[in-house]
Specification:
Layout (H helix, E strand, L loop, with lengths): L2 H9 L8 H11 L5 E4 L5 E5 L6 E7 L4 E7 L4 E7 L11 E6 L2 E8 L8 H4 L9 E3 L5 H7 L5 E4 L4 E2 L4 E4 L2 H20 L4 E7 L7 H10 L3 E9 L8 H4 L8 E5 L5 H14 L3 E5 L8 H4 L8 E8 L7 E4 H16 L4 H5 L5
Parallel strand pairs: 3-12, 3-13, 13-16, 14-15
Antiparallel strand pairs: 1-2, 2-12, 4-5, 4-9, 5-8, 6-7, 6-9, 7-8, 10-11, 11-17, 14-16
Length: 353
């Protein structure tokens, strides 16, 4: 795996709806091996091998991360912001933010009233996003407005770090890791000499509704689609396996079972995993999966879709954690499916008896 490329992706700035920096990195890597590279008007980026081949397979991982957008700059130079995606405001207090404004990038810190000044009842209450602000060190509003404006975007500013073994922490693992995996799998699929048309897509705007996946699936009209995202690691304090399943760091990828996961695609993936000894666990969803698959599965007359997830600790925080062994297993799983994907005929065959 190209871990230098992964680090570049994770360190880049690309909150939901503003993924251009990430897209440029992904496209540059795709051009080193893919036969066809493209982008659409929505911002999704594509890499294809065997264009014109059959069947058509879509591998999707969203490249956006949660972030913030400037909503107001007051006369004292403090920056007020709204969430881009689903933040727990508790994890923002005291964090550094990396903003992108008209004059380039600028660093800020998230401020809150100091604990010494909080009333006893305030200390017991959860922090609300509207009570937080960012401070870029400006002496007044005029200086702040030279660097940022309403609509400027920001993300958490935390470095990529390796931990013990093959585990790493970073902001933006959800779901920059999915965009990385689908491109790595495409590369492996090409090395395997697959005959299908396989397109890896780094999608936009998943954190606010999987809108990019919808347009990408409509454009590609694949026979099947595999979505790669993250899921909660069950091997952490206070995690209830009855709710989150058995997926944990180091146990392989997680295969979703639920209404938006097509049973025939799931069955083929399980068969491949068993044949090739790919470690994995299962996770059940009773309705929406909360991934790009929810939209892809509904496009046109319906696209048979499955979901493979990377166990992730501390989701939607500055220090999301994954195990690289799990990433490698999912990359191989996808490439092997690309070698033997379901055809339209197999998908339409009636089950009788």
């Amino acid at each position: 795996m190209n871990l230098d490329f992964l680090e570049q992706l994770l360190q880049s700035l690309g909150p939901t709806g503003f993924e251009q920096e990430v897209a440029a990195l992904w496209l540059a890597q795709a051009r080193t091996f893919a036969e066809q590279v493209d982008a659409d008007r929505h911002g999704n980026v594509y890499a294809t091998i065997n264009p014109g081949g059959s069947p058509r397979l879509m591998l999707a991982g969203h490249m956006d991360e949660i972030g913030v957008i400037v909503s107001h700059i007051d006369d004292n130079g403090f920056i007020w912001f709204k969430a881009l995606g689903g933040w727990d405001p508790q994890v923002l207090v005291g964090q550094r933010l990396r903003f992108k404004g008209p004059r380039g990038e600028v660093c800020g810190v998230v401020g809150r009233k100091a604990i010494h000044l909080l009333e006893p009842e305030e200390r017991e209450k959860a922090v609300k996003l509207k009570t937080l602000w960012a401070d870029i060190g400006a002496k007044d509003g005029q200086e702040a407005r030279e660097w940022l404006e309403v609509g400027s975007i920001g993300v958490i500013d935390q470095p990529f770090r390796y931990l013990l073994g093959r585990r790493l922490v970073s902001k933006a693992i959800d779901n920059r890791i999915g965009a990385f995996i689908v491109l790595e799998a495409l590369h492996q699929a090409k090395a395997l000499g697959v005959e299908a048309q396989v397109t890896a897509v780094a999608t936009v705007q998943e954190e606010i509704g999987a809108y990019g996946a919808r347009t990408a699936a409509f454009r590609l009209e694949p026979d099947t689609a595999l979505v790669v995202d993250v899921t909660h690691c069950s091997a952490a304090p206070e995690m209830d396996k009855k709710l989150v399943g058995e997926g944990a760091l180091g146990k392989g990828g997680v295969l979703d079972i639920g209404p938006f996961a097509h049973p025939k695609v799931v069955a083929r993936l399980r068969q491949i995993a068993q044949t090739h000894g790919i470690p994995h666990t299962l996770e059940a969803h009773a309705g929406y999966s909360g991934t790009d698959a929810d939209e892809i599965a509904l496009v046109r007359e319906g696209i048979p879709t499955a979901i493979l997830s990377v166990p992730n600790r501390y989701m939607h925080s500055p220090s999301e954690m994954i195990d690289l062994d799990d990433v490698e297993h999912i990359v191989r799983w996808l490439a092997l499916y690309a070698q033997n994907p379901l055809s339209t005929g197999e998908l339409l065959r009636l089950e009788v008896g």
